[in-house]
Structure formats: C-alpha cells, structure tokens
Description:
This protein is of the alpha/beta class. The chain is 41% helix and 17% strand. The longest helix is centred in the N-terminal third of the chain and has 21 residues.
Amino acid sequence: MYDVTELRRDFPILSREVNGKPLVYLDNGASAQKPQVVIDAITQAYSHEYANVHRGLHYLSNLATDKYEAVRGTVARFLGTPDENEIVFTSGTTEAINLVAYGWAMPRMQAGDEIILSVMEHHANIVPWHFLRERMGVVLKWIDVDSTGALDPQAVIDAIGPKTKLIAITHLSNVLGTVVDVKSITRAAHEKGVPVLVDGSQAAVHMPVNVADIGCDFYCVTGHKLYGPSGSGAIYIKSARMAEMRPFIGGGDMIREVTKDTVIYNDPPMKFEAGTPGIVQTIGLGVALEYMMDVGMENIAAHETALRDYAVQKLDGLNWIQVQGTTPDKAAIFSFTMDGAGHPHDISTILDKKGVAVRAGQHCTGPLMEHLGVNATCRASFGMYNTTGEIDVLVEALELAHDLFA
Ligand code: PLP
C-alpha cells in the first residue's frame, strides 16, 4: 500500500514553509527533492569514508572505490541491463549526450548525414547535435508532435533515409508529459541499421525503464531528477556501440599508460570517465536509486497516474487555462498559459506567495515553444511525494492569480 503521508516524512524539506505557507513543491521536472537516506549517505561519505577512487592503495581509497563502483551495478539493475560495464557515469544527461556526440557520432558522420530529433527535445538533446551541424554539415531532421502533443512513431520511422545515422529522442517530454514509444521506434530503426539514443531524464523518474526491452543503443539519466545529488548521472551504452566510441574527455583514470609519444586507454567504461569523478554524488545516486526501487517503480507510476487524473479533472474546470500536452497516457507534468496573464513568470510569482513552487519559462525547449506558438509556459511537475491535496492548493492559487489578472 502506497502511503504518501509516510513517504513524505522521508523528505525533510517537504515539511518546511515558504512565504509563511506549507511548501507545495511542483518543480520536480527541474529537480527533485532528496530523501533523508541520500542526505545521510552524503554526510556519511564525507564524514567517514572519503578519499579519491581508483588510485590509492590505502583503506579509505579502497572503501570509497568499492562504494562508488557498486553504484554501477545499481544503475544497471535500475535500467534493466545485466552488464554493468554498459554503464558510464556522467555528471548528468547534458554530459552524457555530449559524450555520444563527440565520442560516437563525430568520428562516424560526415556532411549531409542526418540525425532525427523530435520537436520536443530538451536543449541537452539538441545543442550537441547543432555542434555537428555547424562544424561538420550534419543535417538535423525534426519530427513534429500533433495538437495533443503525441509523437507518431511511424513519422519518425518514415523520416529514416539512406543518410540517417542516428535517432536522438526523448522518452518523456519535460514540457508536455508525452510518453514516446521508443521501443517501436528502436525496433524499426534497427531494421534500417540506425542506432537510437533515448533521453530518459524524465521517463526514468516516473516509470519503470528496461533498456534491454527497449533495445536502444544509448539511454541517459540524470541524478538530480531521480531524487539524487546534482552532478550525478549515467548513460547506458550498448557494448557494441561502446566498442565503436573514441574517448571524449582526456585525463587521469581513463588511461592505462601514458608516455611522451603514446597513450593507452583504459578499458570501457572507464575509458569514458576522465579525471576525479563526482565520487560522493555517485554514491548518493546509488542510494537514491535503491530508495526508488524499494518504493517500487510500478508503485510510483501508479501514484503519479492517480495524481495526473486528479489534476486533469481539476484543471479542466479552469477554462481560462490552456494546458499544453493532452495525451491520455501522459505523465503528471502540466505546462500551461493563462488568459490575461502577461508572462508565465507573473503566474509563478503569485503561486510562490502561496508556497507553490512551479517553473516558468521555456524549459530549455526553444523549438517546442516555437511549435506551440507560445513564448513560455508555467509548468507544474509532480513527483512521488506529491498529493491530491497539493493539487487543490495549486488550483486555489491559480484562481487567485486569475482574479488578480482579470
Ligand atoms: N533532457 C530532459 C528531458 C530534461 O528534462 C533535462 C533537464 O531538465 C535534461 C535533458 C538535462 O539534464 P541535466 O541538466 O541534468 O543534464
């Protein structure tokens, strides 16, 4: 039985007030709050178990290395691959996609080659590909979403041509909440010999993910959205793709031997992890993922589906709000504009006075904003600890904002 009241006690920040009101934290799409076990793990690591990893032959270094390296297996289990060597630690999705752009795509693409993207990608899954467009003449092909925010997998598949070298696509839109059928896309893409990168930054937070089932080549997650520390993250890279990659960032740890004239790289995945990593962040990520798996990804998904349904029903009653993204199986992420409101920033400022934290702006999705024909939106994005009562507070605060703008 999912007891959200009990679960909320695990997150100390949720009991604080903001502007004299109980905090209603609905900015999970940007970053999630941390359970006490993660905070404790960070304190424990720095207080009693800290040293650099992989290098020392002393007790603390070995202890930190064991704790850090154990997270590879945790991430592998969380993402559904039996091979932990297919997991590369990163500082987050942004670094992960840049790693693929520089390490895998750049050496194998030339002018005129194509990368297929959806119009709802986050800038982290756009700008690295723009680098290839600017520097190498690679062509970016964009797939639109329909008026509900749905992405037709067939449209992606139909766009594959003889010059298509990669599909880079989100699993779950951070603005619309749309869930993309990445499994069908991957199956069809592979029949045509095209690898698929999936940006799982949002999806892995809200639903069970199994990369073996999806079949994709690359799958990125970012720790701070997964109730873990900022500066942590990981990418699943299918071993066949990893074997094709050249290193991206050079430095210590990713090498076996360096002379004045030569360099011999470490074996993957360490070949792609240069320098002192985010040791404690990664240890914290491992604890966060264990926490999520203990709660149960199916249970989290079911709880958030109930929140979504309640929020849809409540927001439907506000006919002066325009919600972007109305697919029936969307995640509990609601981006909206409001009649009479100048800029979504004004809405979020009023909500903040009521203790309600939402995000306003473009959400790092310039092409999507252009497609939707809006400058910006306000976004309420839910997590495992949110409640229907908080949706009521959101609605009351929106009504207040609407009255003020009228
Ligand atoms: N992709 C999506 C869908 C996101 O929502 C985000 C973060 O907002 C990112 C990528 C980038 O993640 P990070 O900034 O943690 O690297």
